Amino acid sequence: MNHRDAQDLALALKQLVEDAHHQLDSAREVPELVSRVTGHLGCELRNMICVTERFPGWEHVNLQNGVDRYIAEHSPEAEWFGVAGHGREHDDLVNILTVTARGWERFEIGAVGLGTAAIGPDETTEVVTFGLILTRTPDGSPVLVGLRAGSEHGSPQCQVDVLAADRSNATAVRDEIGRLMREHDVYRGQILSFSWSEHRGNELVTFLPRPALSTNEVILPSGVLESVERHIVGIAEHAVSLSEHGQHLKRGLLLYGPPGTGKTHTVRYLMGRMSGCTVIVMTGSAIRFVAQAAGLARRLHPAIVVLEDVDLVAQDRSYSGGDGNPLLFALLDAMDGIGGDADVTFILTTNRADVLERALADRPGRVDLAVEIPKPDAAGRAALLRLYAGDLDLTADLDPLVARTEGATASFFKELLRRAVLGALVEGASPARLTGEQLGRALDEMLGERETLTRSLLGSGEHVHDDGDGPPGFTVPRPMLHGPGGVFRRVDRHPL
Ligand SMILES: Nc1ncnc2c1ncn2[C@@H]1O[C@H](COP(=O)(O)OP(=O)(O)O)[C@@H](O)[C@H]1O
Ligand SMILES: [Mg+2]
Q1: Helix 167-183 / helix 60-74 crossing angle, nearest 10 deg
Q2: How far, in Å, CA of 18 to CA of 24, rounded?
Q3: Is 416 in the pocket of ligand 1 (CB under 6 A)?
Q4: What share of the chain is helix, strand, coil (3-state, %, to 5)?
Q5: In ligand 1, which atom is closest to the CA atom of 376?
Q6: pLDDT digit string, tens, across residues 350-409
Q7: 194 — alpha (psi -120 to 50), left (phi > 0) or beta?
Q8: How far is the centre of ligand 2, averaged over its atoms, from the C-alpha of 234 (Å)?
Q9: Distance from residue 349's CA to the centre of ligand 2 (Å)
Q10: Closest-lying ligand to the alpha carbon of 283?
Q11: How far is CA 137 from CA 24, 75, 98, 145, 170, in A?
């Protein structure tokens, strides 16, 4: 090697080392996580605009749906990527990128965080709990969309971030995702239960299957189901014409009566009748979310908001400041807040109409039909025996059974038939035919002394007494009724 070659080699080596240093430096200065974003957006981090929108956790599935639809339309080839690094879930996106660019923290491109969310009673879908995707505005400008789930003060939340070089581009994408979210709302037409969990401290939405009950499965005095149906289903069927004639669509139905007589059963029947209608069911403390439920109902109408056992709320003083009951007022306000033009029905059920009457009478116009769901009369009791016997061959003379069960609620008959069938099975007899003796023995058992609590829970009428001491909806057995004037005399008079 001559001197010249050696010099060239030294220079080349020097160049190589410098290039390597340079590459190392630039790799350190602009980590891939940052360069991928800045490269796509075509601007420096400090010039980026981030538009963020937050939603409650139960909207995550809708947000995902909105983003998925946006991506499918504007950048179907785009792929999600994640961010790895400690504390990413507590940091906002711009901050993650900034601290990484400056080398203060080492966030890197990582796996996409995924979770699942329900989209139906038996169906779930994958949702991104932390992920980014590079996409474009409808007119082609580059943007980045980020999706994440977390919680704030214990309440699950989700959020979308849109990063762009220009504010109007970021907001345009955010708005379009929002529009797609609402247009394809996964809750529309579903039966949803809003429930509240002490543990998670947040409203949670669950999908319920739509019940399918036929008219002859609902045993009520003649005309009762028809009038309820006319009010709820009839208005829905003529919604367009009614609106055209200036009539309001919003309606409020109160179903009241003793426990176990079929208030919930009637509501389930109506849910089945109103296919395609969004239903939101709330019970007890979940009624605190009535404002959100009413908002959802208005958005997804035609809709029904079912408020079960409202007396529990009306009596709940834990939210009360002074005389009023804020929760009950919140409920009445929510009913009031929906415009008459929205096809929204509120159905309230209660065992204690008296508790509600004052509040409802003080603020009229919320409930436009109040229907009593009474204990079944003799014809109803016979019909209930036949209904719950199902396919069984009832050879029994039903009259004595009907007479002995005066005052019993509908749910009592369901249990009676089950016990009779079980009794037949235990005896080794075929339960396909039920005799009067078998039914009589089941009834003896249920009316027997050992089952006072069962009786009161199933509501066997005059044999129990509601002295108002127990929790609402429960009847408290009064021992003296088991004496000569009580249940046993009746049993004696109608031996089976
Ligand atoms: N009127 C009825 N016709 C037929 N079955 C009924 C009737 N009422 C109640 N049942 C039966 O008893 C069960 C409990 O009744 P439910 O509707 O929950 O009572 P509540 O009036 O307390 O809401 C129902 O699921 C249904 O099986
Ligand atoms: Mg009920």
Answers
A1: 120
A2: 10
A3: no
A4: 50, 20, 30
A5: 1
A6: 998 888 887 777 777 788 899 999 999 999 999 999 999 988 888 878 999 999 999 999
A7: beta
A8: 23
A9: 7
A10: 2
A11: 34, 9, 24, 11, 8
Contact 344, 304 (CB under 8 A): yes
**Would you mind telling me the total number of residues written for the chain in this entry?**
496
Q: Distance between terminal CA atoms of the chain?
A: 123
pTM: 0.81
Q: Where are the domain boundaries for CATH 3.40.50.300 in the chain?
A: 206-371
The minimum-distance atom of ligand 1 relative to the CA of 257 is 21
- The CATH class, in words, for 206-371 is alpha beta
Please work out whether the CB of residue 459 comes within 6 Å of at least one atom of ligand 1.
Answer: no
Where in the chain do CATH 1.10.8.60 domains reside?
Answer: 378-458
Could you please report the per-residue DSSP string of 82-119?
EEESTTGGGS-HHHHHHHHHTTSS--EEEPPEEEEEEE
- For residue 396, how many C-alpha atoms fall within 13 Å in the half-sphere facing its CB? 26
**Which CATH architecture is the domain 378-458 placed in?**
Orthogonal Bundle (1.10)
Contacts of 136 (CB under 8 A, 6+ apart): 74, 75, 142, 143
Beta-strand runs (E) in 138-234: 142-152, 155-164, 191-197, 202-208
Residue 210 vs residues 185, 191, 193, 255, 446: alpha-carbon distances, Å = 18, 6, 12, 20, 32
302 lines ligand 1 (CB under 6 A): no
CA distances, 145 to each of 41, 85, 392 (Å): 11, 19, 61
Quote the tokens at residue 448.
Answer: 């027997």
The residue to which tokens 């169906």 are assigned: 123
Of 73, 283, 264, nearest in space to 183 by CA: 73
Which ligand does the CA of 211 lie closest to?
1
306 lines ligand 1 (CB under 6 A): no
The finding on whether 410 has its CB within 6 A of some atom of ligand 1 is: yes
DSSP state of 57: G
pLDDT tens-digit readout, 435-477: 889 999 999 999 886 777 777 777 775 443 333 333 333 333 3
Mutate to test the pocket of ligand 1, among 224, 265, 458 (most ligand atoms within 8 A of CB): 265
Q: Is the CB of 265 under 6 A from ligand 1?
A: yes
